[in-house]
């Protein structure tokens, strides 16, 4: 079979300690999955069912990259997140079995054009322009669960130019990784290569060109980018 145009390059994430790469199919993101962040966004943190949005796979940005400040925004925010990489697919996955579907973990930053996101939210429109833009998904190398296990607690943090902005623990997730996978797989058939950005703690804020952003999750990895 031939294609009528040249197909796009396969989006892929780095794998710690390997030259091999993890092919990425879809990027799912969980909204408001830390109570303190829900409050700072003016929302009730009660434990309602999680909700999801997506980023395109080619929004991935490698660790250490220089990231262009995106167009049409004056309020670009950082959101540090634990990321789960799916290695075995399925639908209606039981919570008790969910971790068997996780290949590994990384650390991501959900870059957000907050002004566009809030304008869309207030009009009842999708968040795509605020969340799913080019270069909006920086990601560290992925670490296999066979090596690091399945972290359920550990510091998650982010700094801008050395100043701590976000500082919490992944144990504070409203919906844990197994619960998130169970809920998400009831809505979509998960496929090997899917990534799940699991939500961000409180402390999100604006950045400007020239800022250096660093963060990490204890027991997994660190991440850094520079805005240009």
TrEMBL record:
Task: Cite the EC number.
Answer: 3.7.1.20
Question: EC top class, in one word?
Answer: hydrolase
Q: The organism sits in which domain of life?
A: Bacteria
Q: Which residues form the Fumarylacetoacetase-like C-terminal domain?
A: 27-220
Annotated Pfam families: FAA_hydrolase
Q: Which keywords appear in this protein's UniProt record, sorted alphabetically?
A: Hydrolase, Metal-binding, Pyruvate
Molecular function (GO) terms for this protein are: acetylpyruvate hydrolase activity; fumarylpyruvate hydrolase activity; metal ion binding
Protein name, entry field: Fumarylpyruvate hydrolase
* Species annotation: Oceanibacterium hippocampi
